[in-house]
Design brief:
The chain has 534 residues and is of the alpha/beta class. The chain has a domain of 156 residues: Isoleucyl-tRNA Synthetase, Domain 1 (Orthogonal Bundle), CATH 1.10.730.10. The strands form four sheets. The protein has a six-stranded parallel beta sheet with strand order 3-2-1-11-12-7, with helices on both faces. Strands 5-4-6-8 form a four-stranded antiparallel beta sheet. Helix 14 runs antiparallel to helix 15 and helix 17 packs antiparallel against helix 18. It is elongated and about 90 Å long. The C terminus is likely disordered. Bound molecules: 5'-O-[(L-methionyl)-sulphamoyl]adenosine.
């Protein structure tokens, strides 16, 4: 039986257009999903759009259209991007879909029935831009200003339904203690642990000051707080609150292995979400991974600075360097750790040239060319049966599997590069082009080139989740088939290309002019997103 694996991205606000932040989270999730599928697991990869709330209501009003129209327009744009970027999500959930709404209401009924939600009066500090309430302590720490927009927090009083978050402090602390990798990276986990020490206060989870949201069951005038509505997407997409035909048979995908998110939305995912799941008697996800931010040329990205990496900018990169190059840069150079990562065109170019052109492109092309020249393109035999390679390769594949398991994409990306580097080193050392001059060397030449080809194929397997298009070309050129078409036990093994198999020379990554992306970040100054991002 196939084991399953589940990964999610945040669901994206529809009052913004797709940009590098969305592209990043979605691309790294896609790399992981493809890797798991390649290993034969049954993967559920979820993304979607977050369509309710004041922000959407206001943006729509400013454009003179209905919130639903705005949501439809932008959700379609996000869906288009998923397709044009060949992202392999299993579903795309929209929070205005009936299947989601009905289950959110069902979950709220359950929460009320279990006494985890009650009606009360709230007075507190509210960040209008983020639609987030802060405790007195936290508000003081923030100097009574939004950490995101810098605008003053406002004092708000409302009669609302509350979620009894305070009742879960102990259990969350226990879960943290028992699961040291529940939140990653560790710096972020420590932040959450620190904030938890303040104690947890109950949170209002309905609003009465706007209407663009899901109606709270049996409470006229109350609309469900957009964050509660949004977090529940992770389980409504799997039909855990009832579902419909589209979600049937998906219960097995819960709990998720990874929720991939940005650092600014960690509190919701690391504290509120686990408490909600506990209140609903549902298991918790294995890991909430909170990456940091892309900045551009050392500065925060913003429309006014003209350094914003928006969709048109991303599309310029993919048309110049190719989609795989974009994915490679996202997955290997991004802000996966606790520090922000700088996006700039020169760096992009250097990474493209050194990793993709000079290593991933060049090594297979060299090997393919020599087999073409000396053995008419047919894999010669290896009397040495791989020598040290089977052992070495098996170790590298083990390392790759472990890295993927830990969501260490950078570590996993190095595995394929390492193997190709070792092939290059072997070629430089053994100089097959010199051996080829004397027919007496043919057996040795055959062994060397057979081994090179076997390792190149295997490196391609390890690189394929990162560079699926060129990875497929590489697999085909070296007598294999791309993706999960073959069982993992065979794909991961050294030496599966049979003697006599046709090996082709491949040109995977062409050189690109260093000046192809003119400005430093490559951002197009006139096409910022609707809003500045932090
Ligand atoms: N709707 C909420 C999430 C609800 S999940 C239950 C939301 N949406 S968002 O559209 O703002 O999310 C954007 C995602 O992109 C977040 O993961 C965020 O961290 C990420 N990024 C936004 N700007 C970014 C950068 N400059 N760099 C990297 N990622 C950043 O939040």
């Amino acid at each position: 039986m196939l084991t399953s694996a589940t990964i999610t991205t945040p669901i994206y606000y529809v009052n913004d257009r797709p940009h590098i932040g969305h592209a990043y989270t979605t691309t790294i999730s896609d790399v992981w999903a493809r890797a798991q599928r390649g290993m034969g697991r049954d993967v559920f990869f979820l993304t979607g759009t977050d369509e309710h709330g004041v922000k959407v209501e206001k943006s729509a009003a400013a454009r003179g259209i209905s919130p639903q129209q705005l949501a439809d327009e932008n959700a379609a744009e996000f869906q288009r991007v998923m397709r044009t970027f060949a992202l392999t999500n299993s579903d795309f959930i929209r929070t205005t879909e009936p299947r989601h709404i009905a289950q959110v209401q069902e979950f709220l009924r359950r929460l009320v029935a279990r006494g985890a939600v009650y009606l009360g009066t709230f007075e507190g500090w509210y960040d209008e831009g983020q639609e987030e309430y802060h405790t007195e302590n936290r508000a003081r720490e923030l100097n009574y200003k939004s950490p995101i927009s810098g605008k003053p927090l406002v004092r708000a009083t409302e009669q609302n339904y509350y979620f009894k978050l305070s009742a879960f402090s102990e259990r969350i602390a226990q879960h943290y203690a028992a699961n040291p990798t529940f939140v990653r990276p560790v710096e972020r986990f420590n932040e959450m642990i620190g904030r938890m020490r303040d104690g947890l206060q109950d949170v209002p989870i309905t609003r009465t000051n706007f209407s663009w949201g899901i109606a709270m069951p049996d409470a006229p005038g109350h609309v469900v707080y957009v964050w509660i509505d949004a977090l529940l997407n992770y389980v409504t997409a799997l039909g855990l609150g009832g579902g419909d035909a589209s979600t049937q048979g998906r219960e097995k995908y819960w709990p998720a292995d990874y929720h991939i998110i940005g650092k600014e939305i960690l509190w919701f995912h690391a504290v509120i979400w686990p408490a909600l799941l506990m209140a609903l008697d549902l298991p918790l996800p294995r890991c909430v991974y909170a990456h940091s931010f892309w900045i551009a040329d050392g500065q925060k990205m913003s429309k006014s600075l003209g350094n914003f990496v928006d969709l048109p900018t991303i599309e310029r990169y993919t048309s110049v360097y190719g989609l795989d190059a974009w994915r490679w840069y996202m997955a290997t150079q991004g802000p996966i750790a606790a520090t922000d990562a700088d996006f700039n065109a020169r760096h992009f170019h250097e990474v493209y040239t050194s990793s993709l052109v000079n290593t991933v492109g060049n090594c297979p092309s060299r090997v393919g060319a020599m087999i073409g020249k000396y053995f008419a393109g047919s894999l010669p035999t290896d009397a040495d049966r791989g020598g040290q390679w089977p052992q070495k390769c098996s170790e590298v594949v083990d390392r790759w599997e472990r890295s993927m398991e830990r969501f260490d994409l950078v570590g996993a990306s190095r595995c394929g590069i390492d193997l190709l580097g070792q092939v290059d080193a072997m070629i430089n050392e053994t100089e097959p082009f010199k051996l080829a001059k004397d027919p007496a060397n043919t057996p040795r030449l055959s062994s060397i080139l057979n081994q090179c080809a076997q390792v190149v194929r295997l490196a391609g397997v390890l690189l394929e989740p990162f560079i699926p298009q060129r990875g497929a070309d590489l697999a085909t050129a070296f007598g294999g088939s791309p993706g999960a078409a073959t069982a993992w036990a065979d794909r991961r093994r050294y030496g599966t290309i049979q003697d006599g198999t046709a090996i082709h020379k491949v040109a995977l990554f062409p050189r690109v002019e260093a000046t192809a992306m003119a400005s430093s970040s490559g951002a197009s100054p006139s096409t910022g997103s609707d809003q500045p991002r932090q």
